[in-house]
Amino acid sequence: MTEEQRRSRKRKRGGRRHGGKSISRAASAKDNESTSVTASSSAAASSKSRSGSKSSSSFLDKMKARLSGSYFRMINEKLYTCTGDEALDYFKEDPSLFNVYHSGYQEQMSRWPEQPNDIIIKWLKDHSPALIVADFGCGDARLARSVKNKVFSFDLVSKDASVIACDMSNTPLNSSSVDVAVFCLSLMGTNFSSYLLEANRVLKPNGWLLIAEVKSRFDPTTGGAEPDKFVKAICELGFTSISKDFSNKMFILFYFKKKEKQKSKDIKWPELKPCLYKRR
Ligand SMILES: C[S@@+](CC[C@H](N)C(=O)[O-])C[C@H]1O[C@@H](n2cnc3c(N)ncnc32)[C@H](O)[C@@H]1O
């Protein structure tokens, strides 16, 4: 083989090698392309799945909201259609239902133009801070946190160390030991009269009884009680009606004072219809 032939063979081999390299570069470029295609298609897919997960999470949120709304209405109906001791057992079995009830209740209240609790808090602030208060069915005990008075807070479940968990027809308070008894939307049980009897027991003579209740429960045109029959029954229990406030769209306020002397009477209590919330 001549020198020229050897060089030419080398050139060919090197060319092939170089060509191989270019092929592999091209392949790797293609690989990159395909990687970037994969990347962009996976980015598209993930953005698609992100928007998919966004819509599925908003769907889930909607479903959760619906479910907790349904739970709230179910618990609410239960509380209005059973006695206080049945309600106590109900929450003892599953205390988490109390949170479900209260978040649904807060949601309902956020739609009310005015809160009855605020009116009662204002009333207390306008009177002596020395008055001892019992808040029957206190919920989250906002009333106790909002005033300077000594407040005994009662509810079926204690979510705060200051709240005494009990059925409010049977509180641990001594007889004639408080100046103000408050029921803010809490006359829920079918035995609501026994809560008022308990308030009567713990109130001092001349003590105040303040009741805020949902207006629809006192609308005789829709099956509600006659407000006058309710007032009459409480007066027969041993109170004087001081005033009634019908000015609010959503609730009525009743102000009573405990009489100095009490006569026992057979009281005819009106029925208070449940306050059931509609699904929105
Ligand atoms: C509609 S919420 C009102 C809560 C609070 N008073 C407010 O205005 O925000 C009624 C409360 O009364 C309580 N309740 C109903 N029946 C009760 C009973 N027998 N004994 C103690 N609490 C009771 C419920 O658990 C609930 O927290």
Structure description:
The chain has a seven-stranded mixed β-sheet with strand order 3-2-1-4-5-7-6, sandwiched between helices. Helix 5 links the parallel strand 1 and strand 2. The protein has 280 residues and is of the alpha/beta class. The chain has helices at residues 3-81, 84-93, 96-109, 116-125, 142-146, 192-202, 227-237, and strands at 133-136, 151-155, 163-165, 178-184, 203-214, 239-245, 251-258.
* Ligands bound, unique: S-adenosylmethionine
Instruction: Specify Rg, calculated over alpha carbons.
Output: 36 Å
How much is the average pLDDT?
84
Q: Tell me the major beta sheet.
A: 7 strands, mixed
Secondary-structure arrangement, i.e. CATH architecture of the domain at 115-258:
3-Layer(aba) Sandwich
CATH topology of the domain at 115-258: Rossmann fold
Structural class: alpha/beta
Total number of β-strand segments? 7
Strand content: 15-25%
Name of the level-1 CATH class of the domain at 115-258: Alpha Beta
Instruction: Please name the fourth-level CATH homologous superfamily of the domain at 115-258.
Output: Vaccinia Virus protein VP39
The amount of helix comes to: 40-55%
The largest sheet has its strands arranged as: 3-2-1-4-5-7-6
Low-confidence stretches: 11-46
First-last Cα distance: 98 Å
Biased composition (Basic residues): 7-20
Pfam family, one: Methyltransf_8
GO molecular function, one term: methyltransferase activity
Organism: Buddleja alternifolia
